[in-house]
Specification:
Radius of gyration: 23 Å
Distance between the termini: 12 Å
Helix content: 40-55%
Strand order of the largest sheet: 1-8-9
Number of strands: 9
Shape: globular
Strand content: under 5%
Number of helices: 22
Largest sheet: 3 strands, antiparallel
CATH topology of the largest domain: Serine Threonine Protein Phosphatase 5, Tetratricopeptide repeat
CATH class of the largest domain: Mainly Alpha
């Protein structure tokens, strides 16, 4: 399986800008300089439309897309691929930020993908502006110029936002950033504030140009207008406002009125896969392979009617964790199991299936093992041959963000109604009600009838978000204070980038760092080069059993 690695750094962006050597290379190492390469309107429009695929692959296709799910204990894996075993094993270890680490690419690729998208979007806008000198349109019309500018700004917003979600600091870059001046690093809060400002401008501009069509090959959604793009931007703002927090205290202090407002105006978003470059690794691998799509008991266990989950958890000591073994749950959640068959065995549920066997290697920790296959995406991966909708934003995410806003304002009735959209609609569980009691953010996830609304909400948010957008389960658990102790709550700037920036190496996570910022305690051949970035989209290759190690 080919892994594409991003080759250069943001530091090089500044160097190239200062030296006047930045270039755009479309499959040609002897490419002309940037101003010549972007002189043609069709080249500029092609560059701008390509930025979404670059962002998408940074989120959904890099090998690192599996890591947030296993760090959140939604998925479980002891395979070495992409560093999953090292990041998910217990006791948790510090994230390995050495450029020499075998899986360093898994921590680097998101960074370079998102900055590659930002760089290309910025170059596209600069070329548009240069071509508009004298009051003329650069593309076929002023409307097309505006559409391209709005789209590029959207890409800069969601890319800066993802850097803020995953890394502790970054370079906040927009269309006005002057590469002839020093670019300072900012922390994740400042980076996210800048990202949201960009997306709010996108919303305003989209509302003013709502009827303008966005070509299908820009986002692989049709029909799609700038009005729709503005609604998707609302969805991202809601997600980002809630998800950027690193601690329970930070999430509690988030702008929940803003989360509610944006989520209520947002819409789901699911580009269509094409079985080639438009694909999602997490939804493909887990949908097609029982070795990859393993569901952690920490995600499913809160729906267990028996004492099995409580016994599996034990007292949480290292000895208890090491002794955990797979077992069969008893649950009423239709997402986990269907009706019993003639032999009394659980059948396929809406999202999961009890295989009555484990597939992970016992010597790597039986606590990783589970009987349950979470094959929710088998429709995309198998039935549709990777050519169906690739879900990134579901209506359930938007509803449940509004439910959390309601819980934080002590509005149990509204929260219960929103929780029941999936609790009853997908899980066929007993309806939640205001009489259950709001509870507190410290409540553990619990799908059972005696649980508080907070407990039921947490369970719904994790199971409904799993294997959709790869990062939401991780950002939810860290913001609730529910990550396993020692888990990194963010990544450092990649080690390779630190070397180029002449900065000391650092990282987060591990037992020695518990209680410090960045580490969880337990409260309970294709592409282009732009400004030195080599952007190569990875084409899907068939998954085989030999791909796990």
């Amino acid at each position: 399986m080919t892994i594409i690695k991003k080759m250069t750094s943001l530091a090089l962006v500044a160097v190239l800008a200062l030296s006047g050597c930045a270039d755009l290379d479309v499959g040609n190492t002897n490419a002309p300089d940037q101003s010549r390469a972007l002189a043609k309107p069709e080249d500029v429009e092609s560059l701008i439309k390509s930025t979404f695929l670059t962002w998408w692959q940074g989120v959904h296709t890099t090998g690192g897309s599996f890591n947030p799910g296993v760090m959140a204990d939604a998925n479980t894996s002891s395979w070495g691929n992409y560093g999953m075993r090292e990041l998910a094993s217990e006791p948790r270890a510090a994230a390995n930020n050495s450029p020499a680490w075998r899986y360093a690419y898994a921590l680097e690729e998101p960074w370079y993908s998102w900055y590659g998208a930002i760089s290309a979007a910025k170059d596209g806008i600069a070329s548009l502006k240069a071509g508009q000198e004298g009051g003329k349109s650069f593309l076929a019309s002023a409307e097309e110029d505006k559409r391209a500018e709005i789209f590029a700004t959207f890409i800069m917003g969601i890319s800066n936002g993802m850097v803020a979600i995953y890394y502790d600091k970054g370079f906040l870059i927009d269309a006005n950033t002057d590469f002839s001046q020093a670019i300072e690093l900012v922390d994740y809060n400042a980076q996210m504030a800048g990202a949201i400002t960009l997306l709010e401008q996108v919303i305003t501009d989209c509302n003013a140009n709502a009827s303008v069509a966005v070509p299908e090959d820009w986002v692989h959604v049709t029909p799609f207008t700038l009005g729709d793009l503005g609604k998707v931007a609302h969805s991202f703002v809601a997600r980002f406002k809630a998800g950027v927090a690193r601690t329970r205290q930070e999430r509690g202090a988030a702008d929940w009125a803003g989360v509610k407002s944006h989520a209520s105006q947002g819409i789901p978003f699911a580009p269509m896969g094409d079985g080639e470059y438009w694909w999602t690794r997490t939804q493909y691998y887990t949908g097609v392979s029982a070795s990859w799509g393993r569901a952690d008991y920490k995600m499913l266990g809160p729906a267990d009617n028996s004492t099995g989950y409580a016994n599996w958890l034990g007292d949480g000591s290292d000895a208890t964790i090491a002794g955990r073994t797979a077992y069969s749950m008893i649950t009423d959640d239709a997402r986990i199991t269907g009706a019993l068959d003639a032999d009394g065995k659980q059948t396929q549920g809406l999202y999961a299936k009890n295989e009555y066997r484990t597939r992970l290697i016992a010597s790597r920790g039986t606590y990783h093992q589970t009987y349950y296959l979470f094959n929710r995406t088998r429709d995309y991966a198998v039935d549709q041959g990777l050519q169906g909708p690739m879900k990134d934003i579901n209506q359930s995410e938007l509803d449940l963000l509004q439910a959390e806003a309601a819980l934080r304002s002590n509005d149990g009735a509204t929260a219960a109604t929103l929780i029941n959209n999936t609790r009853v609609g997908n899980g066929a569980l007993t309806a939640a009600a205001a009489a259950d009691g709001v509870g507190t953010v410290a409540d553990a996830p619990n799908a059972l009838d005696g649980g508080s609304l907070w407990a039921k909400y947490k369970y719904e948010k994790i199971i409904e978000g799993c294997l959709m957008h790869p990062y939401t389960g991780y950002t939810d658990r860290r913001g609730w204070g529910d990550l396993v102790k020692g888990t990194p709550t963010m990544l450092a700037i990649p080690g390779k980038e630190l070397e180029i920036l002449l900065m000391d190496s650092y990282t987060f996570g591990g037992q020695d760092a518990i209680g410090t910022p960045g580490t969880a305690g337990k409260i309970r051949e294709n592409g282009y080069t732009s400004r030195g970035f080599t952007i190569e989209w990875e084409k899907v290759t068939p998954l085989t059993d030999a791909d796990v190690h």
